[in-house]
Design goal:
heterodimer; A: 109 residues; mainly beta; five-stranded antiparallel sheet; 0% helix; globular; B: seven-stranded mixed sheet; four-stranded antiparallel sheet; 11 strands
Chain lengths: 109, 116
């Protein structure tokens, strides 16, 4: 089964509102990376995390390795935040990052 | 930020023919990756590559697939022969290192491969 599960799978947000996306791991994870894939398919780096929290503008992400999850908080959602958000986890024994199932976000006026 | 370039952006090919996808990684990066994404689905790891050798590959990396990076040139994914199920977007990525502080992945814009 999926080793990196994201929830929700899809989300519609009113412009200006807040939300949180979640990534749950069934593998021992050492680092997490969050990406936004825009409608044209390009992947944008959002965060790279060891256990802890990072913030960048309206985005904040936390990685809790002991409880095997990561969250991405979006504050004051804007239309340009629309796209698919992926988390990717690196296991301690591995040499590559495993992607989650994705959350498709649509921000509406 | 750091840029990974992929050429071409779209490739259409007849089933059974050979195709080579090209990637120009970030200039000082040492680790290279290929991922496959079928439309609307998650990114699936294919292979990674370091110091002229494959480090790890997934079950999606079939015998028909090969990778190489001759000195100073592109990191390539070759599929020979192609099959209909190879139709997907192929993303190249690179990272500086594998340790926690330097293994941030940077992705190219992808090559859409259509096998007819």
């Amino acid at each position: 089964g999926d080793q990196v599960k994201q929830s929700p799978s899809a989300l519609s947000l009113q412009e200006g509102t807040n939300s949180a996306l979640r990534c749950n791991f069934s593998i021992a994870t050492t680092t997490v990376q969050w990406f936004l894939q825009n409608p044209r398919g390009s992947l944008m780096n959002l965060f790279y995390l060891v256990p802890g929290t990072k913030e960048n503008g309206r985005l904040k992400s936390t990685f809790n390795s002991k409880e095997s999850y990561s969250t991405l908080h979006i504050r004051d959602a804007q239309l340009e935040d629309s796209g698919t958000y992926f988390c990717a986890a690196e296991a301690g024994s591995g040499t590559y990052q495993r992607f989650g199932t994705g959350t498709k976000l649509q921000v509406v006026p | 930020g750091p840029k990974v370039l992929q050429i071409p952006s779209h490739q259409i090919i007849d089933m059974g023919q050979m195709v080579t996808l090209n990637c120009d990684p970030v200039s000082n990066h040492l680790y290279f990756y290929w991922y496959k994404q079928i439309l609307g689905q998650q990114m699936e790891f294919l292979v990674n590559f370091y110091n002229g050798k494959v480090m790890e590959k997934s079950k999606l990396f079939k015998d028909q697939f090969s990778v190489e990076r001759p000195d100073g040139s592109y990191f390539t994914l070759k599929i020979q022969p192609t099959a209909l199920e190879d139709s997907a977007v192929y993303f190249c990525a690179s990272s500086l290192a594998l340790d926690n502080s330097q293994n941030t992945l940077y992705f190219g814009a992808g090559t859409r491969l259509s096998v007819l």
